[in-house]
Automatic annotation (TrEMBL):
GO terms for molecular function: 1-aminocyclopropane-1-carboxylate synthase activity; pyridoxal phosphate binding; transaminase activity. This is 1-aminocyclopropane-1-carboxylate synthase. The keyword Protein biosynthesis does not apply. Gene3D superfamilies: Aspartate Aminotransferase, domain 1, Type I PLP-dependent aspartate aminotransferase-like (Major domain). It catalyses: S-adenosyl-L-methionine = 1-aminocyclopropane-1-carboxylate + S-methyl-5'-thioadenosine + H(+). Its cofactor is pyridoxal 5'-phosphate. Its EC number is 4.4.1.14. It holds the Pfam family Aminotran_1_2. 1-aminocyclopropane-1-carboxylate synthase (ACS) enzymes catalyze the conversion of S-adenosyl-L-methionine (SAM) into 1-aminocyclopropane-1-carboxylate (ACC), a direct precursor of ethylene. It is an enzyme of class 4 (lyase). The keyword Metal-binding does not apply.
């Protein structure tokens, strides 16, 4: 132990968060329709498995792309030797055009401003290395993606200060919450270097309103700090209001050539929109040349392999395919989301109204034995171990209100989703019956206790004037 670094032995990775613990429990006993029908159903993993058939049929139609061939000729050697950290120009072009397509072509992106990274995980960490010193802080609205504790803090030494959002306004960011977070950082003697938001939000599944985005731009302008917009879920917006990228807001406000233009950075990845987390394809988009140059050099530590870039440049530059994929994928997500919401409703559970993402933000406050995080953990354990559903408790997302859970819907078959809802309904029915019986029992006990106490009080504390307490 003594010979290892502090980083290797410290506990700040977040591995012991209930978010990751749930995954470990699932690994021990994974549900399988045939092999293990009583196993745990994984609903804590934001994977998009709804549109694989579209990708697979494109691969069938375009065998050269995955076969390392161009016009029928092998380019194996070319790909095997390619290691330029600037990335394949054809892939960068295809990626920025795909990003514009997702934003309804309201904004365009320049290939000279994009840096390829091994997923959004690497993109977010790289931005921390570029924008902050160890011990400086970024403000993040709560609830937030649990992986950020690892991605933003662990190796960089950067601190996260929460912007406390609440259910009172659907967890939207307010001017007051931003200011309070800034003050809290100052109280903790942390220099604030920026705000990081996820739009659409993980775990809320909601898009940010123009009002919130404008608030953010005003805030970072006033405080002279950065803004990172993690737009990894931008292609998953399946209902109105549509997605508004921070780039669109900057354009609308004519921010080009202003200082703030260089302080806004976008993170993107193909892990969610294309459902390819295993391919490790992410990107940083920044208007600041120095950030782009530094991040490009840093990307040596997490490059995207050349065969992945080659394959995906062919796939994404097939415009017709890309457009059809985006709209069909959204349709499927919308339908799946509806199935989850109605399944939850049948179990008497509601969730935050959402229009994006691969999950719902589910309100189980009424099922808590008390309004505490201990009770949230108690309920979560029952849901994982007894009901056999792995969902993510709000506390793992740093939510300030106990009783909220993130439930994923796009990483399983429709039948599995149906089964998960049956299990949940049976559980809720059983505990509401128990709670009902308990409360009946308790009210009998209470009324007995009341008459007993009244009687005792009458003996000892009777008002001498009225005969009443
Ligand atoms: C908001 C957010 N950012 C980043 C990531 C990491 O994504 P990637 O697989 O591209 O590293 C995730 C994954 O769940 C996420 O939800």
């Amino acid at each position: 132990m003594g010979l290892l670094s502090g980083k290797a032995t410290c506990n700040t990775h977040g591995q012991d968060s209930s978010y990751f613990l749930g995954w470990q429990e699932y690994e021990k006993n994974p549900y399988d329709e045939v092999q293990n029908p009583t196993g745990i159903i994984q609903m804590g993993l934001a994977e998009n498995q709804l549109s694989f058939d579209l990708l697979e049929s494109w691969l069938d139609r375009n065998p050269d792309a995955a076969g390392f061939k161009r016009d029928g000729q092998s380019i194996f050697r070319e790909l095997a030797l390619f290691q330029d950290y600037h990335g394949l120009p054809a892939f960068k072009k295809a990626l920025v055009e795909f990003m514009s397509e997702i934003r309804g072509n309201k904004v365009t992106f320049d290939t000279s401003k994009i840096v390829l990274t091994a997923g959004a995980t690497s993109a977010n960490e790289t931005l921390m290395f570029c924008l902050a010193e160890p011990g400086e802080a970024f403000l993040l609205p709560t609830p937030y993606y649990p992986g950020f504790d690892r991605d933003l803090k662990w190796r960089t030494g950067v601190e996260i200060v929460p912007i406390q959002c609440t259910s009172l306004n659907g967890f939207q960011i307010t001017e007051m919450a931003l200011e309070e977070a800034y003050q809290l950082a100052q109280k903790r003697h942390l220099k604030v270097k920026g705000v990081l938001v996820t739009n659409p939000s993980n775990p809320l599944g909601t898009t940010m309103s123009r009002n919130e985005l404008n608030l953010l731009v005003n805030f970072i302008t006033e405080k002279n700090i950065h803004l990172i917009s993690d737009e990894i879920y931008s292609g998953t917006v399946f209902s109105s209001p549509g997605f508004v990228s921070i780039m669109e807001i900057l354009k609308d406000r004519n921010c080009e050539n202003t200082e703030v233009w260089n302080r806004v950075h976008i993170v993107y990845s193909l892990s969610k929109d294309l459902g390819l987390p295993g391919f490790r394809v992410g990107a940083i988009y920044s208007n600041d040349d120095t950030v782009v140059a530094a991040a490009t050099k840093m990307s040596s530590f997490g490059l995207v392999s050349s065969q992945t870039q080659y394959l995906l440049s062919a796939l994404l530059s097939d415009k017709k395919f890309a457009q059809n994929y985006i709209s069909e994928n959204k349709k499927r997500l919308k339908q799946r989301h509806r199935k989850l919401v109605s399944g939850l409703e049948k179990a008497g559970i509601s969730c935050l109204k959402s229009n994006a993402g691969l999950f719902c933000w589910v309100d189980m406050r009424h099922l808590l034995s008390s309004n505490t995080f201990e009770a949230e953990m108690e309920l979560w354990k029952k849901i994982v171990y007894d009901v056999k559903l792995n969902i993510s408790p709000g506390s793992s997302c740093h939510c300030t209100e106990p009783g909220w859970f993130r439930v994923c819907f796009a990483n399983m078959s429709e039948d599995t989703l149906k089964l998960s809802m049956q299990r949940l309904k049976a559980f809720v029915d059983s505990i509401t019956t128990t709670l009902h019986n308990q409360s009946n029992h308790q009210s009998i006990k209470n009324s007995r206790r009341r008459s007993f106490t009244k009687w005792v009080f009458r003996l000892s504390f009777d008002d001498p004037m009225t005969g009443e307490r």
